[in-house]
From TrEMBL, chains A, B:
This is LacI family DNA-binding transcriptional regulator. GO terms for molecular function: DNA binding. The lineage of its organism: Bacteria, Bacillati, Actinomycetota, Actinomycetes, Propionibacteriales. Pfam families: LacI, Peripla_BP_3. CDD domains: HTH_LacI, PBP1_LacI_sugar_binding-like. It comes from Kribbella sancticallisti. Residues 4-58 form the HTH lacI-type domain. Keywords: DNA-binding, Transcription, Transcription regulation.
DNA sequence: CTGAAGTGATAAACCGGTATAGCTCCTGCA
DNA sequence: TGCAGGAGCTATACCGGTTTATCACTTCAG
């Protein structure tokens, strides 16, 4: 017999389909002896529930979705998503819930996917990444009544559950460290301005500047690409009063920045300190290796999965979980500024 | 009405459920007029099929799976999977088939996933990557009767469909180019020896050596990590007769190798030419930018998706599709060897 | 004029589970 | 002795589609 159904098990055990269902789902209604017998037969026939049948009856599909709205070209270089995925799966596998992944070009397409998933009952809930200012996805998901958890930002006014890290504190820890080394001209090469976390990081730099006596602390926004990271660095290093330290919002941009420094004959960390707001193997492949802020992205994903499952189980619940703070891993790209 | 079913549509149209099903699936049994009316009502009620219900009835779930058996840590740096995913989706989205992604630690876990997916009817077929010599997954999938397409290798003796690129020709194009530049001492830092493509590349180097008059052409295997890439490079460059050119099986190892060369005072491309057997943004971030073999991974994924859908539709079909040959993108890391 | 074939539809079975109403014992208590 | 109540199980409806058997009716060939 290729793929046994509960009817087959019921036959063999000499009981009804209902009894088998009760036994397999650990609910009352069968004696311990019968339950044991049924479980043994199921095991022996290597029975597994047909996911579609279960979904149809129980109106849950044991599957959650993740849509990433970024051009594929910029993906993959950053290990962020790979780690996040692993973490998510680790959190989901406990209850053997599967993950649907979709990469789309933009937010409009992403919302369209949610709409389709909701109407086709393909997922029980979704995970939101790259939260933007006034993010249209929040309203869309609420309207669709699709359970969701936001990663890396707050889910709007009491709307969606979220798992977030404190970007502000993280950025402050970087700027504090650089200031302690003696830097007073610190620049910030930021990401896309419409991302919430970009805004928070920019604000953190701006707010810290007076307290630390920074002469100048500009935040320049980019599109997160290596090209703009390089171009912005070139601009910064061409100024009369060039910064003695630059903080990059991503490791890719930091690497691009390092390349520009070398190309312009600016020594790192002698003339310029570099910090990446994100860690990966990239930062360690460089010479000098880059000082970077390490986040436990795997754990991040794991927690997000758990929160999502809670929200799926009880959509009324609103959870805002703050994860462990990221830590600054100091390597070779930071040093006190040259005295002149 | 939140989520209309075909019964609702049938009510409104004044026909039976069956007629609605026929109309929506474009099969005979209803008149053109009725069909048009039903389609219009469905559209107006923004009806979408309930995926589980359809799966249960039609015994296909419109979903395929991809399992990647690699530690998450080594993923993500290479954009290979991100591009492959996008390509796969592009090929699947046409028939709105969704993709299940799972990252696991090893092949045993991967096979376990296939077993589960098959018995739970979660996917119609799977995509296999990282084919090894005597790959146990092939037999497992055949036994499970799960349609599959192999990416980057042949699917065994007439067993599984495959989409593959010619690694041998690609490697030859690299070695030919280096030999034409004048290099006679060429080393090959290969990946894991149990991967089929590693074997093919090693064989290609070995076979080409006599024809090109290479003095020495060792292939050294690694675990694909930056650490082993660096260590192997260190060993090669410490030899009395060090190679004047090194070909790396991955871009990450090539970057690590470049770092070692710099650290040992070996100038690139003056004293050493470097080629990466895989392209990505990484190679372009370096100084010098690395000469690399570019493959159209997106297209690769798209074709794999199409082949898989054909195999799902007709499991008896065996397709072996050879994709476009990769091309060598020459950048700054290759030059004729120094004369001494 | 009759029978065969074709068209456009319906009703009902079915896919493989879950949920529920109801039935049969058995036990305990008044 | 009677009856409430619970344990243990069965029968059946149901989820939302697909598929098949069947049927009424038209058309057309013989």
């Amino acid at each position: 017999m290729a793929r046994p159904t509960i009817a087959d098990i019921a036959d063999r055990a000499g009981v009804s389909k209902g009894a088998v269902s009760f036994a397999l789902n650990g609910r009352p209604g069968v004696s311990d002896a019968t339950r044991a017998r049924i479980l043994q037969i199921a095991e022996q026939m290597s029975w597994r529930p047909h996911s579609a049948a279960r979904a149809l009856g129980a109106s849950r599909v044991d599957s959650v979705g993740l849509v990433i709205a970024r051009p594929a070209r910029t993906l993959g270089v950053e290990p962020f998503f790979a780690h996040l995925l692993s973490g998510l799966q680790s959190g989901l596998s406990a209850r053997s819930i599967s993950l649907q992944l979709l990469i789309v070009e933009n937010t409009a397409a992403e919302i369209e996917v949610y709409r389709r998933w909701a109407s086709e009952h393909r997922v029980d809930g979704v995970i939101l990444v790259d939260l933007t200012v006034k993010d249209p996805r929040i309203d869309a998901l609420r309207e669709l009544e699709l359970p969701a958890v936001v990663i890396g930002g707050r889910g709007g006014k009491g709307a969606l559950a979220s798992v977030w890290a404190d970007d502000r504190d993280a950025m402050l820890s970087i700027v504090d460290y650089l200031a302690a080394l003696g830097h007073r001209r610190i620049a910030h090469v930021a990401g896309t301005p419409n991302f919430q976390h970009t805004q928070r990081r920019i604000r953190a730099v701006r707010d810290a500047a007076p307290r630390l006596g920074l002469v100048d602390a500009p935040s320049l926004t980019t599109d997160f690409s290596d090209a703009e990271g390089a171009a912005t660095t070139r601009k910064l290093l061409s100024q009369a009063d060039r910064p003695t330290a630059i903080v990059y919002d991503s490791d890719v941009m930091a690497v691009a920045g390092l390349g520009v420094a070398m190309e312009m004959g600016v020594s790192v960390p002698g003339d310029l300190s570099i910090v990446a707001f994100d860690d990966s193997i990239l930062t360690q492949l460089m010479h000098p290796a880059l000082t970077a802020l390490s986040r436990d992205t795997f754990e991040f994903g794991r927690q997000a999965a758990e929160v999502l499952l809670e929200v799926v189980a009880d959509p009324a619940k609103v959870i805002n979980l703050r994860t462990a703070d990221p830590v600054l891993t100091v390597r070779e790209s930071t040093a006190p500024p040259a005295t002149h």
